[in-house]
């Protein structure tokens, strides 16, 4: 177990849904948090205010993680404010669900860029600082869809499966350097991403989950906290948090 006070985390897509729960959970436990967002500044500021009210420290930083120049600025801002990076939580993600026949090249590229290529951008920019940390942690938020596939989700499942392979390879490369790399694979979690589904599809999903409910963003956030705090000997893993939907 490591002491979290004075650690610094970047949470990409930290302003809404699972990312906002991760930002709050880390900050509640003493971590200084950079809440990254792409467009919704009000949502990001709301998370920062909540953290401050709870006695924690956080800043909101705008950056589109699919653009490497934005990511360089995100890292520079983090360093100028907090001076170090210990935890990198790659959470930003989007879906553009269509059956493959209807999927445009743009739908493909956007989803691969935001969900997968972004991780190249963030990790390559943050790695020198994670290596300086005595307890560097990278947590990549993948998805059950990267493990099982999903109808109408060729782009998303390719990105999320790619993230799992990337996690394992990088874990091998960084294992001797005190940096752990893990993937968290949520099942269906009650965020806007899932709320946008038609009611009938949501009901079918809930009926298919062994525990008979959707997951909560806090349940993912607590697993990220666990990997950061207690995960010294955990690397290259995919942590499934899905109510038993995929084993
Ligand atoms: P939401 O749509 O609720 O939130 C997405 C977050 O990502 C927002 O903060 C958004 O910021 C940010 N974001 C989107 N694109 C970019 C970008 N290019 N650069 C920076 N930030 C960006 O998503 P969820 O909370 O539902 O999902 C979070 C992660 O968990 C995703 O990677 C998703 O694939 C994964 N996941 C979600 C599941 C679910 O059931 N919800 C299940 C399995 C995995 P802004 O609002 O400013 O655009």
TrEMBL record:
A GO CC term attached to the entry: cytoplasm
UniProt-listed Enzyme Commission number(s): 1.1.1.36
All copies of domain Ketoreductase, residue ranges: 7-191
CDD domains: BKR_SDR_c (cd05333)
Listed NCBIfam families: AcAcCoA_reduct, PRK07231.1, PRK12824.1, PRK12826.1-2
Highest taxon of the lineage: Bacteria
Record family assignment: Belongs to the short-chain dehydrogenases/reductases (SDR) family.
PANTHER family: 3-OXOACYL-(ACYL-CARRIER-PROTEIN) REDUCTASE, 3-OXOACYL-[ACYL-CARRIER-PROTEIN] REDUCTASE FABG
Biological source species: Alkalicoccobacillus porphyridii
Pfam families attached to this UniProt entry: adh_short
Gene Ontology molecular function, alphabetical: acetoacetyl-CoA reductase activity
SUPFAM superfamilies: NAD(P)-binding Rossmann-fold domains (SSF51735)
One GO BP annotation of this record: poly-hydroxybutyrate biosynthetic process
Keyword terms: Oxidoreductase
Protein name as it appears in the record: Acetoacetyl-CoA reductase
């Amino acid at each position: 177990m490591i002491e979290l006070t004075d650690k610094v985390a970047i949470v990409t897509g930290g302003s809404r849904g699972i990312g906002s729960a991760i930002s709050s959970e880390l900050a509640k436990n003493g971590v200084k948090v950079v809440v990254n967002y792409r467009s919704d500044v009000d949502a990001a500021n709301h998370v920062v205010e909540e953290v401050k009210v709870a006695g924690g420290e956080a800043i909101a930083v705008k950056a589109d993680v699919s653009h490497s120049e934005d990511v360089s600025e995100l890292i520079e801002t983090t360093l100028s404010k907090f001076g170090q990076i210990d935890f990198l939580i790659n959470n930003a993600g989007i879906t553009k669900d269509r059956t493959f026949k209807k999927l445009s090249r743009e739908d493909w590229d956007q989803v691969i860029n935001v969900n997968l290529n972004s991780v190249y951008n963030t990790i390559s920019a943050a790695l020198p600082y994670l290596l300086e940390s005595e307890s560097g942690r990278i947590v990549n938020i993948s998805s059950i869809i990267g493990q099982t596939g999903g109808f109408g989700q060729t782009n998303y499942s390719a990105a999320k499966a790619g993230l799992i392979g990337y996690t394992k390879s990088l874990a091998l490369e960084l294992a001797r350097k005190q940096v752990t790399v893990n993937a968290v694979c949520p099942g269906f979690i009650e965020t806007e991403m899932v709320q946008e589904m038609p009611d009938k599809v949501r009901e079918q999903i809930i009926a298919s989950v062994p525990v008979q409910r959707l997951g909560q963003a806090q349940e993912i956030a607590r697993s990220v906290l666990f990997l950061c705090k207690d995960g010294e000997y955990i690397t290259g893993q995919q942590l499934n948090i899905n109510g038993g939907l995929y084993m």
